[in-house]
Amino acid sequence: MNNHIINEIKSWAKSICIALGVTLVVRTFIFAPYIVEGASMEPTLHNHEKIFVNKLNVTDNFKRGEIVIIKGIDVNYVKRIIALPGDTIEMRKDQLFINGVQFEESYLSKNRKQAEQKGSLLTGDFGPEIVPENNYFVMGDNRLHSMDSRNGLGYIQKETIVGKPEFVFLPFTQIRNIK
Description:
Oligomer: single chain
CATH architecture: Ribbon
Shape: elongated
Number of helices: 2
């Protein structure tokens, strides 16, 4: 082999290594794809949709109503933050109260109508309870079909929050920002 071919092979190998390194860094620390599994966030997110999760936005400044990805033991969960550390949370007759003040959950309107048509409440009564420091209370938007802080996940420690979903990228007909 002549030097030109050897140099060309080295150049390609170097380019491939750099591309793999950049991909690894981006996927590990900045953005990662995630597949929604289950119906717990419908109608906001649907089963098998593919979303991009922003890992850079993981801070101590989570806001009530934000959707987050939570690292579980064997599986990750996508849920909405309902109450922050130190909040007192209570649910009475499908109305959410945080620190004694009624909190409107407009993202539940479709699911609430379906529950009313069935003659049931969307969210069962609970509380009041105080969210411990460094923890969050989360629920899925599809309250009738969601494992969340009410019934299995318990309070979510902030260290287990992986990131915030930014947008749906598959299927192509459903590309949208996530709110």
